[in-house]
Structure formats: C-alpha cells, structure tokens
Design a protein that fits this description.
10 strands, alpha+beta, Helicase, Ruva Protein, domain 3, 284 residues, 4-stranded antiparallel beta sheet, N-terminal domain of MutM-like DNA repair proteins, DNA-binding, 8 helices
DNA sequence: CTCCTGTCCTGCCGGC
DNA sequence: TGCCGGCAGGACAGGA
C-alpha cells in the first residue's frame, strides 16, 4: 500500500517521538520479514540516540548518534504505531497480532512495526548507506526542487516499456507506486500504454509536475487509506476520496462530459500483472 | 544490459 | 452461512 505519501506521513508522525530521542531497547518478535532481521539488530540500535529521520523513496531512515542507523520499509501492509508510555510489561498479551518489531524509547513510549503480510523490512544501515544496496540505484526524489522535466526525460530515454510500468521502476523515480502513477498519468493526460521514450520535451515537464503535484496533495491529505495505511496516531488518510481514476473502473473521470453508461467510463487494464486505471478519452 | 514473470505472505471480498 | 478463488499499495530473483 504505502507509497511515498503514506511513507512521508508516517515519517512526519514519527518525528516528535523519535527525533533527538534515545532508543532504550528493541524487541524483535518476528525475525522473518521480507528481509530477515539480523540477530545483532538489537545491539546495533539499543542505547543510541536518533539524530536524523529521513525518507528516501518508500523507505524511512533513522540515523543514530554513532553514524549508523536503521531503515524501515512498509511493504504492502506495514503500519507503524506509536504507543504512549505505560506500565505494561512486554508480554505477548500486550501486543497485537503481527506486531513484529518494538522500539522502546528511553522516555517510555513504544514504536511498533506491525505488518500482516510481512513484505516489509526493518534493517540496519551504516554510514555509507547512500552508496549501498537499494539507495545507490534509486532515482531522484520527485519532491526535490531539481526534479525537472528535462532530467526526467533523460531517465525515460530509450525505454521501450509502457510509461506506466516504467514509472513504477524505483531507479527512474523514487517513491511512486501503483496508485499515484495512475493518478499522475491522468493529470498529465498521458496514456499508460505510451512507450516511455515517447515522453519528452513539454510532455515530460507536464508529467514531472503532475507526479509532484499528486504526491504533494496526497501528503497533505495524510496519504490514502484503502485497507492498511494508518497515520502513526491510528487515523486514516483521506486522499482516496480525491482519486480521479484509481479504483474507479466504470465511473466517469472528474472532468469528463461523457456518459459512462455509453463510453464505459474509466477503464481498468492489467500491465505487468498489476491494475492500471485510466480515462481513454483524456489520456492519449 | 533490458524486460517480463513468478513469488514471498496474509486478509478481505465477491460469487456460488 | 461457508468455502474458494482472485486480488491487494512492493520489490526482488531468475530466465529469456
């Protein structure tokens, strides 16, 4: 579920409870997440203070006062819950099903990573994290000032794959997933079936701003809650009420003058095994 | 190298 | 009501 806006929403919710705070201890209740939590994770973070809390693509990163840190990925169904200080002991009955990793903060609050499908990850990073594994290959941050149409077009150059699947590639742009790629293509008026290399010049600029705009609006709304996404206080995001095309098969798109009973409205197709929603009349 | 398919795991929803 | 298939926001490995 969680794409850039959901991850950013969670990161912002964690700032007040994590930033500048010390981690007293970590309880790993399940090690077998998407990537196995290493046995030494506890000693890697315990007793350290969090000096920076960042987001890169769909990852949340905490930098610790020794220069190392840890990363968090929510996978498809991950949530992060913030539990205020309490006298509860760390017994199983005080945890919910799928509460896999618990960060116990010095002042008593608990940060709980919960993930039913276990597609998420909690992993250690070191000082050179930017040069390593997923981050070294990751594309530009779409919300950075320098994310321009020209730089974007350069990444699309030569790609024969449809623009929809290309945008899901994290080495092209970081953080965009299945919902927001559909929404951004709609706002840019570009068909998801168009070959990526055909998007250049003005259209690349339009697509870059559409991606940025959709993500910014979604962050403002606290993300989209379809099933699992929650803000750290447990409340839902509400950008799903602003979807133009995603999950709206058969309905009219917002500015359409057509009658969906005749035209069929928003269409759902499958690309790369995943649903794509678009308006064939507004996206060419 | 690029591109495509299958797979990891659980929960939920719709159809029969 | 209950069971079963299909589908879900992601990302990687492996093969063509």
């Amino acid at each position: 579920m969680p794409e850039l806006p959901e991850v950013e929403t969670v990161r912002r919710g964690l700032e007040p409870v994590l930033l500048g705070r010390r981690i007293e201890d970590v309880l790993v209740r399940r090690f077998d997440l998407r990537m196995r939590v290493p046995e030494n994770f506890r000693s890697h973070v315990s007793g350290k203070k969090i000096t920076r809390l960042l987001r890169r693509g769909k990852y949340i990163l905490a930098v610790l006062d020794d220069g190392n840190g840890f990363g968090l990925h929510l996978g498809m169904s991950g949530r992060v819950k913030v539990q205020p200080p309490s006298t509860d002991r760390n017994t199983d009955q005080n945890y919910a099903l799928h509460d896999h990793v618990v960060f116990m903060m010095e002042e008593g609050s608990k940060i709980i990573f919960n993930d039913p499908r276990r597609f998420g990850m909690v992993f250690p990073i070191d000082k050179k994290w930017e040069e390593e594994k997923p981050f070294s290959r990751m594309g530009p941050e779409p919300l950075e000032k320098d994310f321009s149409g020209t730089k974007f077009a350069l990444r699309l150059k030569g790609k024969t794959t449809p623009i929809k699947t290309t945008l899901l590639d994290q080495s092209v742009v970081a953080g965009v997933g299945n919902i927001y790629v559909c929404e951004a293509l709609y706002h840019a008026g570009i068909s998801p079936l168009k070959k990526a290399k055909m998007i250049h010049g003005t259209r690349a600029g339009k697509l870059a701003s559409a991606v940025r705009h959709v993500l910014e609006m979604a962050i403002e709304a606290g993300g989209s809650t379809l099933r699992d996404h929650r803000q750290t206080d447990g409340s839902e995001g509400y950008f799903q009420y602003s979807f133009s095309v995603y999950d709206r098969e058969g309905q009219a798109c917002p500015s359409c003058v057509c009658d969906p009973a005749i035209t069929g409205g928003i269409r759902r197709i499958v690309q790369g095994g995943r649903s794509t929603f678009y308006c064939p009349r507004k996206q060419k």
